[in-house]
Amino acid sequence: MAGKKQKPTKNQKLDPETEDLIKEVREQAQQEQSDHASGQEEPAADRQILGYHQRSIRDQLREQFEEIQELRKRVRQYESGEAVPVVLLDPWMIGISEVPNRTPASLKDEAYQALVESIAMSGVNHQPIKVRPRQEGEQTDRASRGQDVEHVLVVGERRLRACRSQCIRIRALVDSDLDAKTAIVEQVVGNEQRTSLSAYEQARQWQYAMDQGAFRSLRDFASYTGHSISTFRERHRILSLPKKFFDLVGDPSYLSKAEYRRLLHFYVEHEEHFKEEVHQLLEEVGEAKTEKMAQYRVSWLIKAIERGTMENDFQVFHVNGEVAYRQKMLCDGAMVLEIPKKIAKRSSERIEEEIRRILRERDRGENS
């Protein structure tokens, strides 16, 4: 643990992150003073704006003012020696809470591999993670395995896992004033300010935060994160997709916001057809192992749904009142014929001739 806090001296060099923070606060303060000195009044037309847009602008201004006040407070804390200390910790003594965050795919992409290489070469994480003391009985990825930990991660899972993989001690900000619920808010907001989560990761984490009461309302959530209520609801709809769909794509983080938006449109319009196509694709091609494979499966799924209902997708031909065969389009675009077992066993020449005749008529119709 850190020893007694020392007040920084004039000659002490500040870390780049703190210098940027102080510079930003000073610039914002100078801008405020300049605006105040100008004495310009708000135009009459603007003062007459009513309704939702006016309240939204006021809320945004209030949030910006509160952010500036918080930045000033942090600068004063640093200058007085009261800032949150940065310490070196054993990464295996920091637990990851049950708050949903990254999926396995996010810990395998190129950005993560580059982070691991950077930490391995420099021997340290330049940007500290943030942790809080672990509460009694609180479950984490380490505590659930019977291993006691002193701290719980707030922000910086990828950095923590990278340091674990390299067995490198990690630089961390220890905030003793954070409780579990406040930490959820900070984690959600922190993720929006850094490497953004995927659409699925956002949906899962945002819903967990609401379930835990970390935000009082959707409006409260919107004011903290900067995302609109409609964006929250759009992300939340992702979680309504059937489980077999997530099995099909392998890792839900493989898909983009645009892909989820299109899939949700088809799911709402053709729910039963959507489920049937997902079930069939899962049996035919199985679970995706890479992002490219997941995108192929989504493309196949959308094309199958766009072709129409199940009855139109699989053309059924009858001979003497019996199903002779079904014409089926596979995911790779190949056309196959499915003949029922009881028909196939008979090896009826008459049925085979009828099938050939139907195919010839179909081919002539396509060429005409």
What does it look like?
This protein has 368 residues and is α/β, with parallel strands linked by helices. Among the domains are: 112 residues, Conserved hypothetical protein from pyrococcus furiosus pfu- 392566-001, ParB domain (Alpha-Beta Complex), CATH 3.90.1530.10; 72 residues, no CATH class; 52 residues, no CATH class. Helix content is 55%, strand content 10%. The chain has 16 helices and 8 strands. The strands form 2 sheets. Strands 1-5-3-4-2 form a 5-stranded mixed beta sheet. The chain has a 3-stranded antiparallel beta sheet with strand order 6-7-8. A hairpin with a 5-residue loop joins strand 7 and strand 8. The protein is elongated, with a radius of gyration of 29 Å.
Keyword list:
five-stranded mixed beta sheet; Conserved hypothetical protein from pyrococcus furiosus pfu- 392566-001, ParB domain; single chain
Assign an overall shape.
Answer: elongated
Number of contiguous helices: 16
Percent in helix: 55-70%
Mean pLDDT: 75
Using the coordinates above, name the CATH class of the domain at 86-197: Alpha Beta
CATH topology of the domain at 86-197: Conserved hypothetical protein from pyrococcus furiosus pfu- 392566-001, ParB domain
Number of strands: 8
Describe the protein's topology.
Elements (H helix, E strand, L loop, with lengths): L15 H23 L5 H4 L4 H28 L6 E4 L4 E2 L14 H13 L6 E5 L17 E5 L1 H10 L3 E5 L5 H14 L5 H13 L6 H8 L3 H10 L4 H7 L7 H13 L1 H15 L5 H16 L3 H4 L1 E5 L2 E8 L5 E4 L2 H6 L2 H19 L1
Parallel strand pairs: 2-4, 3-5
Antiparallel strand pairs: 1-5, 3-4, 6-7, 7-8
Helix pairs in contact: 1-3, 4-5, 6-7, 7-9, 9-11, 10-12, 11-12, 12-13
